[in-house]
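Exercise 7. Given the encoded structure of a 338-residue chain, write a plausible sequence.
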């Protein structure tokens, strides 16, 4: 009798969870079936069976995990401790993986920029919705120069030590990469201050709305991509980095080896990142603590073959100290103060 009562309670709780976890996404949780997971084995078995998952206890994964079929993982307020997660496709189908309603954490002894906490590969979509992700490495990454990848961070917080979100342009093959950040906070911080909130250096677009992006060296780098939109958001650089004047008078390096600023747009290199870049700002607040030492916004157009366009408005409280040497970049942003 008591055993039956337990199953009844679990069934009721499951039904309530399904009701609260449904949303307007393209995937329907019930179409794949749902599994309850209370440990590592249960989670892995559910994912291998292609099911959606609901955590009923905190779960720690001892080994890296690859997810190659669409799923929704409802953390249900629990904590998922991971080594790393790779999201890949299976066959010709696209893979959409959604994490919601809980915490994901990772602490690694070997710090490696190319070992992100969650990596998305070709033809995949990764969504964090109502998730707090913390890591001493990079948070989310579009890995291995892939194509047709979407990352959405909704109502979430990411705290990382290298990049909060990053693309990978080690080869000029990435295309159709989309990143959306809405009602979220992304913060990067480390003892050496060598970190960036969001790095985008491939073909595609970034959309940020009602969010706060903070980094020690840069908040946001847009080194390529057309159709970027930043709306009602705040970009903050702490300046906790000694390289305040590097790359302001010569070619930029790779990754975040670019000028220290809250927002960096365009490219300055004779051999790489030769993409057009266009950005629209709408009521954006730019903030840094030492306007005399480094710029709020740094814009540069590499040459006439790749255009850079920045337009829109800053909030009335925003800083608008932009570099004067833009090398033909089109900069028509109004508002803010110097």
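Solution.
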């Amino acid at each position: 009798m008591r055993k039956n009562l337990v199953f009844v309670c679990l069934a009721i709780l499951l039904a309530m969870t399904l009701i609260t976890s449904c949303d307007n996404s393209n995937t329907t949780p019930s179409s794949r079936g749902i599994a309850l997971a209370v440990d590592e084995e249960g989670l892995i078995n559910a994912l291998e069976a292609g099911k959606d998952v609901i955590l009923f206890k905190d779960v720690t994964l001892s080994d890296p995990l690859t997810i190659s079929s669409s799923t929704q993982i409802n953390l249900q307020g629990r904590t998922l401790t991971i080594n790393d997660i790779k999201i890949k496709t299976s066959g010709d189908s696209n893979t959409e993986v959604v994490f919601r309603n809980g915490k994901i954490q990772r602490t690694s002894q070997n710090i490696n920029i190319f070992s992100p906490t969650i990596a998305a590969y070709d033809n995949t979509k990764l969504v964090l919705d109502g998730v707090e992700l913390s890591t001493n490495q990079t948070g989310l990454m579009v890995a291995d120069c892939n194509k047709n990848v979407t990352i959405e961070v909704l109502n979430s917080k990411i705290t990382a030590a290298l990049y909060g979100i990053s693309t990978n342009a080690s080869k000029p093959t990435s295309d159709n990469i989309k990143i959306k950040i809405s009602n979220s906070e992304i913060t990067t911080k480390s003892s050496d201050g060598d970190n960036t909130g969001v790095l985008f250096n491939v073909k595609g677009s970034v959309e940020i709305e009602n969010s706060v992006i903070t980094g020690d060296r840069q908040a946001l780098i847009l080194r390529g991509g057309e159709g970027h939109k930043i709306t009602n958001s705040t970009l903050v650089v702490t300046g906790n980095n000694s390289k305040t004047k590097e790359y302001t008078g010569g070619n930029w390096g790779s990754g975040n080896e670019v000028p220290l600023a809250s927002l960096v747009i365009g490219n300055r290199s004779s051999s790489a990142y030769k993409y057009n870049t266009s950005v629209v700002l709408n009521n954006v607040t730019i903030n840094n603590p030492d306007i005399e030492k480094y710029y709020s916004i740094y814009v540069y157009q590499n040459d006439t073959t790749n255009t850079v366009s920045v337009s829109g408005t800053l909030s009335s409280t925003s800083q608008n100290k932009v570099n004067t040497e833009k090398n033909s970049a089109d900069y028509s942003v109004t508002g803010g103060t110097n």
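Remark. The first helix runs from residue 2 to 21. Students should compare their own answers with the one above.
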